[in-house]
Amino acid sequence: MPLATLLLPEFDHEMASTRRLLERVPDGKSDWTPHTRSMPLGRLATHVAETPAWATHALTRDELDIAPPGAPPSSSRILGTTAEILALFEKNVTEARAALSNALDAEFEKPWAFKRMGKTFWTRPKYEVYRIFSLNHMIHHRAQLGHYLRLLHIPIPGMYGPSADEKMG
User: Fold this and answer.
1) Domain of 86: which CATH number?
2) Residue 115: strand, helix, or coil
3) Of these four, 7, 18, 53, 129, which has the most CB atoms within 10 Å of its CB?
4) 3 state DSSP class of 65
5) CA-to-CA distance for 150 and 157, rounded, in angstroms?
6) Domain enclosing residue 103, as ranges
């Protein structure tokens, strides 16, 4: 069985769980932060929506330079509404799922480089980039987002079964 076929159910589950959480992000709270060193809520939610794009990058390219020489550097954006965040997430999930569905086993073994201004920071097999820097990275920030929402007294949906909010009714 192809590796992509084995990975798709997990991908679909994690994206559905993430979507349920992103749907709870309140409009008008983009600047809210639980701590001075924490990302603002709007930036964190936008980052969660951006993260599936790393799967697309990992499986369809051999490198990513986040600040290519001679080009303007990438910047962190904050989308203004939940609808915008969900639209970005859906776009990235659709593209990532297509890239994953079409990936041949040999593609996962190929090296992939992360660069900034032409300088390579690290190179890893595409499988590791997909799992660690896309899927696991998104799950990590999704958990942070859940904590933010909890602090704002917003009920949290279950990720791997009912949440405490769902059990309480």
Assistant:
1) 1.20.120.450
2) strand
3) 129
4) strand
5) 11
6) 3-168
- 161: helix, strand or coil: coil
Provide the 8-state DSSP code for 88. H
What is the C-alpha separation between 59 and 129, in angstroms, rounded? 9
Q: Tens digits of per-residue pLDDT, 71-104?
A: 887 788 999 899 999 999 999 999 999 999 999 9
Split into its structural domains, the chain has a count of: 1
Alpha-carbon distance 152 to 132, whole Å? 29
Residue 156: closest CA among 168, 145, 167, 165: 165
**CA-wise closest residue to 117 among 66, 76, 74:** 66
pTM of the model: 0.94
At residue 168, the pLDDT reads 64
Which tokens belong to 66?
Answer: 């986040």
pLDDT at residue 161 greater than cutoff 60? yes
